[in-house]
Write a structure and sequence with these properties.
By secondary structure, the protein is mostly beta strands. It contains one helix and 15 strands.
């Protein structure tokens, strides 16, 4: 059922892309790339957790990655004497422009390390290996090139490709709805709602409702900053609500290369206590 649902969503995006394609650039596709002088400004899905509704230009590739992403958790919901640390190296999102308003994404966690330590017995379990693989489509419904707002659809499916219990145990899927708004005084506002269907410890499919809001502004030329509030709610109350406050910076080396760094801070016990990271995005 899960696989049929996500396939239906992917087919819907593929069909809808033709209807919503902007006429001025609708002739461009993966085999007929958008000329460089007609490409839109580079927009990335990172470093904040709020996804971007803008699609990569047709026939072009954008690679976004965590160079290093570390998380530390001591304040867990069970209030156990445990310390969990993890490190994610070169987690990569390969974004490929298929049409002017449609892209395909392949997200892979390439190198993961995790350490779970019992602070009472001072015993620890360490695991390392590859992570899961996520496939998704991004369909921009409006605002790709013009206007003060943009909206998109992102159906996705996560495949259990991880080693040593470093990822999901079975196929998971969901739908992301991102909205971007241009505000006065060059502020930008991003909002996202995500409907995530995940497996619990009993292999039952649970619904998690994710919402986020992010506010961004340039500090000086090429240097921008954002502040974000993120929440993940379990309507069935099988887990506690995760709320984080996220801060970060972006720096554009040129129109096709961007560096970023940030820090995510947990406001509830469900999330990791703190999560610093640095990243890189390149467009071809």
């Amino acid at each position: 059922m899960a696989k049929l649902t996500i396939l239906a969503l992917l087919a819907l995006c593929a069909l809808a892309s033709a209807a919503f394609a902007q006429k001025s650039k609708s002739e461009f596709n993966f085999l007929n790339p958008t000329p460089t002088d007609q490409m839109r400004e580079m927009n990335t899905d990172r470093p904040d957790k709020t996804e971007d509704p803008y699609a990569v230009d047709a026939g072009h590739v954008q690679i976004e990655m965590d160079l290093a992403n570390y998380s530390y958790d001591r304040r867990n919901p069970q209030q156990e004497a445990r310390r969990v640390q993890s490190l994610n190296i070169l987690s990569t999102n390969f974004r490929v422009g298929l049409l002017d308003n449609l892209e395909f994404d392949l997200i892979s966690d390439n190198l993961l390390w995790s350490r779970d330590e019992d602070l009472r017995t001072h015993q620890a379990d360490e695991t390392s290996g590859a992570g899961d693989t996520t496939l998704r489509l991004k369909l921009n419904l409006w605002g790709n090139d013009t206007g003060k707002s943009a909206f998109g659809l992102l159906p996705f499916i996560t495949l259990p490709t991880a080693s040593d219990d470093l990822g999901v145990q079975d196929t998971e899927f969901g739908l992301i709805l991102p909205l971007a708004l241009q505000l006065p005084h060059d502020f930008s506002l991003g909002l996202m709602s995500k409907f995530d269907f995940i497996r619990d410890d009993h292999d039952d499919l649970n619904f998690i409702w994710v919402n986020s809001i992010t506010l961004g502004h340039d500090i000086v030329k090429n240097l921008g900053a954002y502040i974000e509030l993120f929440s993940a709610l379990d309507p069935d109350r099988t887990s506690s609500t995760e709320i984080t406050l996220d801060l970060g910076l972006t720096y554009a080396l040129d129109k096709n290369i961007q560096l970023d760094a940030g820090l995510n801070l947990a406001l509830t016990r469900e999330g990791d206590d703190f999560n610093p990271f640095i990243g890189l995005s390149i467009r071809y």
